[in-house]
Amino acid sequence: MMNTPAVAISGLRVRRGATQVFDGVDLEIPRGEITGLLGPSGCGKTTLMRSIVGVQRIASGTVVVLGEPGGSKQLRHRVAYGTQGAAVYDDLTVRQNLSYLAAVLKAPKGDVDRVIDEVGLGGQARQLVGSLSGGQLTRVSLAMALVGSPELIVLDEPTVGLDPVLRRELWGLFRGLAERGVTMIVSSHVMDEALRCDRLVLMRAGRIIADTTPAGLREQTGAADPEAAFLALVERDSRRAADPQTPPPPLRSRRARREASE
Questions:
Q1: Number of H helices, E strands in the chain
Q2: Most buried of the four, 67, 143, 188, 230, by CB within 10 Å?
Q3: Which residues of 117-133 are buried (b: 16+ CB within 10 A; e: fewer)?
Q4: Dihedral through CA 152, CA 157, CA 162, CA 163, nearest 10?
């Protein structure tokens, strides 16, 4: 089972009004790793994540998640989605929010205490969510995603607006989850967070312009830091868009590399 991808997307097309957001996206996301969706705001990261969790209307294509159609009933307890805004009740305490979700999901007894401990909110468990700091709110959102021990956790820019110390702590939590076998998909527009991922999917204007690893990104662009590497890819992609005869960049998807070696 671990040899099959956590997410397999083929020919995904999404329209929003008159705008074509995706025009045939193909992507595979492996299990038990941290996959970073990186790119500037408006490039399609959130739409892609919404398509994966099954809350985005798609025009055509297929999205298979953990062996099931994306958004299907069978995935409700297996997939968790953390949006950019905290999906919690401000007038309830941290524990009350988590207890409510645990009841809805019919999570095991003791799950609330487990996730409170995992995200380090023991001191705020009885505090109203509306009185929490930004970093604490982010931890609450992560705790909500952890209830029920999902196999796939999708987080939309969970570290936005946080200071470097809090960002480092959260990435430590993400790493611990991945080491337990949880598949993590984390979006960001902060390029230095690329180095914390196992796998990188770089997006621009509704297209995937690179599907690689942190080491592969540096090696194949010759850039020392992720931001410079991304800018090099953008420049290469722009040249290709201006001249379709320009050979594609050497960065290829994991599927393409596997097929080329067979």
A1: 8, 10
A2: 143
A3: eebebeebbeeebeebe
A4: 80
The beta strands (E) that lie in 57-102 are given as: 60-65, 68-69, 79-82
Q: What is the mean pLDDT of residues 69-96?
A: 90
> How many CB atoms are closer than 10 A to CB 19?
8
Over residues 215-229, the pLDDT tens digits come to 888 888 888 788 888
In the beta sheet, which residues pair with residue 225?
none
User: What pLDDT digit, counting tens, does each position of 176-216 carry?
Assistant: 999 999 999 999 888 888 889 999 999 998 999 999 998 88
Between helix 134-146 and helix 111-118 the angle, nearest 10°, is: 140
Question: Rounded to whole angstroms, how far apart are CA atoms 212 and 251?
Answer: 7
Give the SS3 label for residue 201. Answer: strand
